[in-house]
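Long-time lurker. I teach an intro course on protein structure, and each term I like to show students one example going from raw sequence to a predicted 3D structure in token notation. This year I'd like something fresh instead of my usual example. Would anyone be willing to generate the tokens for the chain below so I can use it in lecture? Attribution to the forum is fine with me.
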Amino acid sequence: MEFRELEAFLVLAEELHFGRAGERLYVSQSRVSQLLRSLEGRIGAPLLERTSRRAELTPLGEKFLAELRPAYGALQAAVDHARATVRGVAGVLRVGFQGVIDDHLATAIAGFEERHPGCAVDLTEIPLADPFGALRRREVDAAVVLLPVEEPDLTLGPVFSRQPQVLAVSPRHPFADKEFVTAEELAGCPLIGVHGSAPEYWRRAQAPGTTPGGHRIPRGPTAGTLQEGMGLAAAGRGAMLLCRSTAEHQGQRASVVFVPVTGLPESVLGVVWRTEHHTGAAHAFAEEIAVAERQA
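-- Reply from a regular --
Happy to contribute to a lecture. Here you go:
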């Protein structure tokens, strides 16, 4: 099996255009076609259906893509990790994050930069409404996002910062004077959700539609950023679920009250990267996150 054939197929599966695939691979369009034909000859069936303008994956091509991506990513990661071991991790590691940089993440970043002084960490805040977009646009090498993560083209690394959830409400909200509220008390309390390109399963996790007991939680307005959600909560438009560290980072406000919630799953963060592009620096950063989690 020729590695270049597999690479050509993966790029074609993304671009669905022979010309653009050739530009990314630095080869001619005819060379891309030749590589694909050779791969299809080895397999014994077409992987893409060609038209004059674009290409479409066949059912076999879709199945082959789903099975190939993780294996290709693992192979590339092994090569990158070996290179990093020999040469040392250097350059810039672009890390995206949602919410705030808590003590756990700050410790991991400090540990990474101390262990790899030749590699600086460049931090970028990821919009609440688009947890995976920066990775797919290749704006960051790794991202720290709220779980769950069920994306087929992304790999979930170490998980950390398990924290109880709190509810951000207006001082005029019926829950504002409570010491805590139970998950079942959320029935009848509109929750502020997330709009944008985030997958439905992810948005549902941040603003569930039912209590653990099965009672309906009404949908409130949606926000695209944390600050927009906090503004809606302050205006009394609904309540917003946050992890404890994010609430603590917001500090004491006259316009918002934070009330602990019992009976809900903990909020959890995870390190995520593109399966087909796992650099040695990203691998080293994930290891540092795992070390910080063990020491927490």
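Some talking points for your students: The CA atoms of residues 27 and 47 lie 20 Å apart. The mean pLDDT is 88.
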